Amino acid sequence: MSRRLRIALAGNPNSGKTTLFNAMTGAHQRVGNYPGVTVERREGVCRVGGVEIEVVDLPGTYSLTAYSIEERVARDAILDPDLDLVIDVVDASNADRNFYLTTQLIEIGKPVVIALNMSDVARANGVEMNLERLSALFSAPVVETVGHRGSGVQELLKAALARAERNAFPPPPRLRYGDALDAALDALSARPDAQAAAARLGVPARWLALKLLEEDNAIVERVAETGLREAARALARPIAERAGDRIEALTADARYGFISGVCHAALRQTAQARHTHSDRIDAVVTHWLFGIPIFLLMMYAVFRFTFALGEPLMGILERLFEGLGGWVGGRWPEGSESLLRSLLVDGVIGGVGGVITFLPNILLLFFAISLLEDSGYMARAAFVTDHLMRHFGLQGRSFIPMLLGFGCSVPGIMATQTLEQGRARLATILVLPLMSCGARLTIYALLIPAFFPRHLHARVMWIVYVVGIAAALALARLLRTTVLRGDSPPLVIELPPYRWPTLRGALLRMATQSGLYLRKAGTIILGISIVLWALTTFPRRTEFERDYAAEAEAARGAYAEAAARALGVPLDAADVAAERVDELADRIADLCAHFGERIAQAERAGNTTEQLTLLAARDAGLARLRDAAPAEFDRTARYLDEARIPRDEALEAIALARQMERMTHSYAGRIGRWLEPAIRPLGFDWRIGTALIGAFAAKEVFVAQMGIVFSIGEQNLSTLRERLRAEYSPITAFSLLLFCLLSAPCMATIAVTRQEAGGWRWAALQFFGLTAVAYAVSLVVYQVGSRIWV
Ligand code: GDP
Ligand code: MG
Prior knowledge:
Layout: E1 4-11, H1 17-25, E2 29-33, E3 40-48, E4 51-57, H2 69-79, E5 85-91, H3 95-108, E6 112-117, H4 119-124, E7 127-129, H5 131-138, E8 142-144, H6 153-165, H7 179-190, H8 192-201, H9 205-213, H10 217-220, H11 226-243, H12 247-266, E9 267-269, H13 277-285, H14 291-329, H15 339-356, H16 359-375, H17 377-391, H18 399-405, H19 409-415, H20 423-431, H21 438-451, H22 457-481, H23 503-537, H24 548-567, H25 574-604, H26 608-628, H27 630-665, H28 667-679, H29 686-697, H30 701-709, H31 717-727, H32 730-742, H33 747-757, H34 760-789
Parallel strand pairs: 1-4, 1-5, 5-6, 6-8
Antiparallel strand pairs: 2-3, 3-4, 7-9
Helix pairs in contact: 3-12, 5-12, 7-9, 7-11, 8-9, 14-15, 14-16, 15-23, 15-30, 16-23, 18-19, 19-33, 20-22, 21-31, 21-32, 22-32, 23-30, 24-25, 24-27, 25-26, 25-27, 26-27, 28-29, 29-30, 32-34, 33-34
Bound molecules: guanosine-5'-diphosphate and magnesium ion.
């Protein structure tokens, strides 16, 4: 019969919990949230010796007081009576600090197994570990592990199983808190009401007494026995008064004393450790002068990486959706006016496809950020920027949520939960959307290649991001000197040692993020695409200003004439003659189209050799056709150039004009036109106005909407870019880039801001404030720029 065992991984942030968790559970895991809070909850299962083990990866904490959400969540999970055992993941290279949590875990009374993780780093630093002695001192099994290599993981699981099944360890050591406190603890824990309360909560009476003396509110609240609460307060007061400090400070001192004893007895550090690897890197990376430039370079490298690798992948997805759209559209006869066809092809495939096309860029960005974070550089970045951030009324720690904001503002704003409540946190939330999010990347990826030469792409992109950062800092400062005035508390930032990030960790994170993104694309974006499709389709235009049918007829007449001339036959025989050469013409056109696309692709990728090879192959193909029937070929070629191509172009122009008239007539066109006078000074017309409406709903929608406005399925990005280039100037494009960067964030962000900042007031300030700033900046850029440009 198989038994189930529940264990939890506890430990300091960055001690390697998640790495060990992944090594234990592999793919058998699920990620969710703890109820009511946005702290991530990871659970998985593994099997050891016929026993199924459920593993929970707890949030990282330094302590088990209840000051932060993470600590509270971790403590509640440990106190849960269904939990059989706790694995305490200790960063052995930082053992003294990590043991603080260990002492607290041991006091709770749950069976504990200690994983001495990062033992490779500890050894490299010259630390000698005496496992037996450690095990005796903590009265718990101790196993050495190296998480990212998976070594020691099986031993750890076996030790956990053995410990859960049979207790071969004496009761854990009793920490001594000094005579006065120890006496108070004894007195309190001996009371019958204390024992009753402890039994109800499932904790040792001594631990409960300790928490009551420490006035740990989360626990005090759960003790109904008022007599006990009173007694604890009465006992604590004289002790605190005599010591001139809070009880908590006294217990913390005692724990540190115990730890230094343990370290002295069981760990030895050799002299070579003085100047570690990490310190040497830090001397450069956190240098007062080089720190910031290195940071900016790192960011630049991240974006280069994202673009260089993302572009070809995007091309593939683009063609996939183009093919799908063509296939679905092909179910209907050509020129069909079917509403369903239009909904599926333009609304659903166009909208969702356009969003999914950008997935590679977003994945790569998250991959890069995850590498920076796991390597330990991110903490340095916070350290380097702390000084700077303080100038703007923010904290070094505000930096991490803001960095997350580069992916998506929503998790970024949620991550501000790690900051202390207060004005600095509010300011961080309000300006966070200025960190250009992944969804806005879609807009840049459309506009930048359309308007700027290749060698400037990365640079323009970089400018946009830097403008966002600068605006965020400036506005934060403005907020902190006006509506959010007040001091920020001093903060210490931990600098974890540098480590090689693992591919697995980065990939897992990428997978989670892509899941979130795709879910968004599948639901919100699908809904919005359909609404926008309806806005652009209805009311349907039935009577047109121009007689498009007659224009098309005229184009066909002109075609017959041109065809006759090219083929050298009388006008009335042109149609018959054309039919004859049409087959060859089609083959020529196909050949050119086939190679044309690949040549354009090679050119985009900057691969000149490939481009020349393809050109040669195309010409060889044409030469073969020509050799087969030279006279026929020449006539066909002339026919193509003089008659067919102009006809196709004329017909397409007529179709587009008709589409455009429809769009103008639709609701979206009307809203856009209504907005036009307001946005004209920024260089925008009604079509951009229409697309910006979509962008308010979700930034990704902008691209889809531009596609619809120009009647180009926006999975066909290159054609859309050509159209944009023909319609707008680079300065309009730049003004638009800045507007999209700075203006009101998407609906989802506004909603989270309301939730985290605690009120519509702040959400409204964010929405209108940012839009006003965007308007002002774009106005200046366009008005000044368009004067200099000419
Ligand atoms: P958590 O915050 O406790 O979940 O820590 P993670 O599991 O995310 O690990 C933080 C970093 O430490 C990652 O980059 C891991 O690859 C790395 N890491 C984990 N275990 C070890 C180890 O035993 N040795 C070394 N050198 N690195 C490790
Ligand atoms: Mg983790």
